[in-house]
Amino acid sequence: MIYQSVRLPLRSPRKIGINRRVFREITRCYATQLSDSTDVVVCGGGIAGTSVAYHLALRGKRVSLYEKDAVGCGGATGVSAGLVSAPTFWQDFTNQHLAENSLKLYADLAGSGKFRYVRCGRIFLASTLASEILLRRMYSRGILHNEHVELLDDQSDMLARWPYLQTEDVQLALFSPEDVSLDPVAMCQELAERAKALGAKFHEGVEVKEVLLGDEKQVYAVRTNLGLVETPAFVDASGVWTGSVLCKQLPHRHIQTAHHPCTYTYLHSSKLPSSSVCDTTPIINDLDGNVMVRLTGRKTRCAGFHEEGIRPIACPAATGEWTQPEADWDKFEISLSRLLHRIPLLSDVGHGDLICGMEAYTPDKCCTVGESSQAKGYYVASGFNGQGLSLAGGVGKLLADWIVDKDVSVDVARIDVGRFIELHANSQYLIERTPEIAAMTYINMYNSHQCHTARNLRMSPIYHQLRDAGAVFGESMGYERPLWFEPNSPKERNALLQGQDTLLGKPAWFERVRSEYEACRERVGLIDMSSFSKFEITGPDCVTFLQYLCSADIERPVGTTVYTGMQNEKGGYVTDCTLSRIGEQCFFMVAPTIQQDRCLSWMRKWAIDLKRNVHIQDVTGMYTALDVVGPSSRYLMNDLTGREFSNREFPAFRCQEMNIGMATGIRAISVTHCGELGWVIYIPNEVAQNVYDRLVEKGREYSMMHAGYYTLRQLRIEKFYVYWGQDINATVTPMECGRAFRVNFEEEIFGTQNTK
Ligand SMILES: Cc1cc2nc3c(=O)[nH]c(=O)nc-3n(C[C@H](O)[C@H](O)[C@H](O)COP(=O)(O)OP(=O)(O)OC[C@H]3O[C@@H](n4cnc5c(N)ncnc54)[C@H](O)[C@@H]3O)c2cc1C
């Protein structure tokens, strides 16, 4: 029921010339009563929340947005430089798709003529080989989106087009014509107007105080400073405040989110004294200087992303106002010198103001979108890593589809809030990691990229033994995993891979991986797989429950292992996994490392929805997993355990519990994840070092060699084993990836009760 429609002045307090406190009082008087029920409540009227509200309204949902300040003015959107990156910049399809949808939406809104919108394009400059390769890759992607993307390798051509640049050291330039410069506040407000025209209710000067959860941790109401609103869905799009709204029923009284505010500093000064500069002058991104410049006919804006110049900021209080962190000229000095190097004329521009905003950064430079596993109906759209304007248009559409259809048509694994586990929300972890991410705002992060901050967080019990054996570690989900081994390197070395592999040519590890690969193919190799996600699923309904979730037939005898997909409603992969039946009512599941939270929340959701009597426990941290692979693995395992590992006694796709030396409770599974003969042994952590030492000792007789993930990948590729996140994801079905033979098409799901 709606008591009174709420119309508020959609202009910033700054623009109408009153301070924020007075503005809030005025808006409070306007908003005397609130609608008491709605389909979705959105918290935050920045670009993300406004975009979500607009797209929900477009899908016919009743939506109420609450903004404690004024639309577009209360957070990062209000201080944004207003530069929208074209899809050319992003490497992965999901972000390209989001950027493309944002550009389309903003271009459509610009048709109203109510805000400044200039399609100025952007120039990326490379002065090193690594950046040059990066630009060539961006170019090959870019021309798929826009045929007018250009590469320039002649400095005189560059100078002819952009005479204000110093190009002596520039090896390559890429021109991306689609990038846009716009007024973020006015654009956000125009989007709000469109949403309101579709029926969305915008309540400015109203703060969300609490999200109320029911017994099953589902959202049922939201409390604002003006009263209670009943709703089954809540979207937290409150920028750096995301996760700070009270949720009393949760253990931490808030949802845990993996993002942290850091500074975003730019210099605002007058126009560059050059007749070639006008409003359509392209944005300039100097990749090696890590600086960005926006020159217009009226002013100049320069930003710098040097890591030393970026500070993590304490999260503002939940009820606090947007405050600008203090700008630090000393920290901006490196960026300033690089800016002057690239555009010497900047020294003729007046001193200018150094402005410091704050922005939410995530540990992996991807935004966080989707339903939190901590509360049903609690969605987030945040952590935009300095590119929120470029992505939020697309994110709003994606999240609206997700809420309405309970499904999306693109792979969201990279941006799904479920890719993180609780430790990623640890503030110390984020404080250490996020400045490094912020420094890469305009630099592509390749899959092989390894951060240098916040490392050595999760490690297997044999980490130090592996390091002494020469392991070079890379991190996934905070877990250190050996990528390859450098056996003759000094023990006291830093064993962490930082940065990324060379982008072209033979990588440094090539010969090492070749030897490891040969060992696995010809003798025996030992691969640490401890980071893989592991679960125990027990209870009287576990067979019917798993049969429902999985596409293979998992109703096999105790001692059997099945490789299967867990499929979503459209047949796409939620995950791939092995399920080992270790008891009549007990399964041991192993899934990819990055699937830890997603698998757990998917299974728990279905256990509740289907009312199945099952218990699901995450046992990832309880077992060390060692993969013993290669033709000699059978003999090594025989010697190690004193048991028969013949084809007859221990064929493929079987699991057995056994002792190794003095250690007990070890689960051996004859599925190696790489297609070679072998066994993965899951060892209780407390005895892992003991078993490892024994294994290495015995392995000498078989010339066993340590191998890392790069070797595992190589072995998998040769066997056409699909790889989660690259070959398969939520949009790929078993039919499409050659895994139809794993599907049990005869499966009858709970009789006629197929609700999937
Ligand atoms: C200096 C600077 C320059 C930038 N330049 C660019 C750029 O050129 N291009 C680009 O793509 N990105 C840029 N960004 C990043 C971009 O601005 C952000 O990613 C984006 O604006 C984030 O939007 P948002 O809606 O998530 O958050 P915000 O804009 O911060 O909005 C969150 C809103 O939630 C409200 N809120 C919080 N808590 C509550 C509550 N409890 N109840 C009600 N309301 C609440 C706040 O008042 C605020 O208005 C820049 C960022 C900064 C800091």
Automatic annotation (TrEMBL):
GO CC, one annotated term: mitochondrion
Residues in GCVT N-terminal domain copies: 463-746
Pfam families assigned: DAO (PF01266), FAO_M (PF16350), GCV_T (PF01571)
Domain annotation FAD dependent oxidoreductase: ranges: 39-402
Gene3D superfamilies: Aminomethyltransferase beta-barrel domains, D-Amino Acid Oxidase, subunit A, domain 2, FAD/NAD(P)-binding domain, Probable tRNA modification gtpase trme, domain 1
Domain annotation FAD dependent oxidoreductase central: ranges: 409-460
Cross-referenced InterPro entries: FAD-dep_OxRdtase, FAD/NAD-bd_sf, FAO_M, GcvT/YgfZ/DmdA, GCVT_N, TrmE/GcvT-like
Highest taxon of the lineage: Eukaryota
Annotated protein name in UniProt: Pyruvate dehydrogenase phosphatase regulatory subunit, mitochondrial
Lineage of origin: Eukaryota, Metazoa, Ecdysozoa, Nematoda, Chromadorea
